[in-house]
Amino acid sequence: MDYTDLLKSMDEQIARAKDEASSRKMIMEKVEKWALARDEERWLEEYNMDENRYTVSRGAHKNLKRAERARSLVNKIPALVESLILKTRSWEEERKKVFLYDEVPLLALMEEYNMSRREKEEEKQRRQRDKKIAQSQVVVLHESVMWTRPVTSSHRGLDQSIDGNKRNSTGIQVESSNERLSHKSAPFVKNENVSKKLQRSRLDRRFGEDMPSTVS
Predict the structure, then answer these.
(1) Could you tell me which residues come within 8 angstroms of residue 124 by beta carbon, excluding any fewer than 6 positions away?
(2) What residues in the chain have per-residue pLDDT under 50?
(3) What pLDDT does 216 receive?
(4) pLDDT exceeding 90 applies to what percent of the chain?
(5) Alpha carbon distance 174, 197 (integer Å)
(6) What percentage of the chain exceeds 70 in pLDDT?
(7) In the chain, what are the domains?
C-alpha cells in the first residue's frame, strides 16, 4: 500500500467535505431561521386558540409582546421558504445530488410545509366565511322578530288617539276632531230643543183655550 496515495486521497476527501460544508452554509443558515420561525408559528397558533389570552394574569404582558414578535417573524416565512427552494435547487443542479436535512430531502420538506400552510389558510378562510354567514343569519332573524313583534302599548295608545283624546309629548290632553265637531254643534242642538219646547207650550195653551168652547 502506498501511504502517499492514501494521504493524498484523504486530503482530497477532506477538501471536498470542506467545500460542500461551505456551499451548504448559506442554505443551512436559512434552514435554521425557518426552523425557529416554525417553532414561533406553532406557539402563535396555540396562543391564538387561548380564549383567556387577553385577561389580566401573570405573564400576560410578556406573552402579548412575544405574540407581536412571532407575528412579525411568521409573516416572513413565505419569502424565506421561497428563497430556500431556489437556493436548494441551484445547489442540487450544481452538485448533481440531493440536499439532505436530517436525512430528509430539503426540497420535499419545503414543499410539504407549503402544502400544510395552504391547507391551514384555506381552513381559516372557510371559518371566517362561516362566521360571516352565521352573523348575517342572526341579523336577518333579529329583523324578522322585530317586524313580527305584537303591537306594543305605544301603538295601542296611537290607535286609541284616533277615536278618542290623546296626550302630546308634554302630557297636555288634546281633543280629537270628533269632539271638537261635537262641541261646535252643541249650541245649535240646544237652540233647536228650546224652540221645540216653546212651540209645544204654545200648542198646549191654545188647545186648552179651545176646549171649553167645544164642550159648551
Answers:
(1) none
(2) 158, 161-178, 181, 183-190, 194, 203, 207, 209-216
(3) 36
(4) 31
(5) 35
(6) 67
(7) 9-146 (1.20.58.1520)
State the amino acid at position 71 in one-letter form.
R
List beta partners, residue 174. Answer: 166
| Residue 107 CB contacts under 8 Å (≥ 6 apart), including other chains | 85, 88, 89, 92, 98, 99
In single-letter form, the type of residue at position 95 comes to: R
Residue type (1 letter), 102:
D
CA atoms of 145 and 91, how far apart (whole Å): 66
3-state secondary structure of 52: coil
- What would the pLDDT profile of 182-204 be if each residue is shown by its tens digit? 544 444 444 555 455 555 655 45
Distance between CA atoms of residues 167 and 176, nearest Å: 10
174 phi and psi angles, rounded to 5 deg: -115, 135
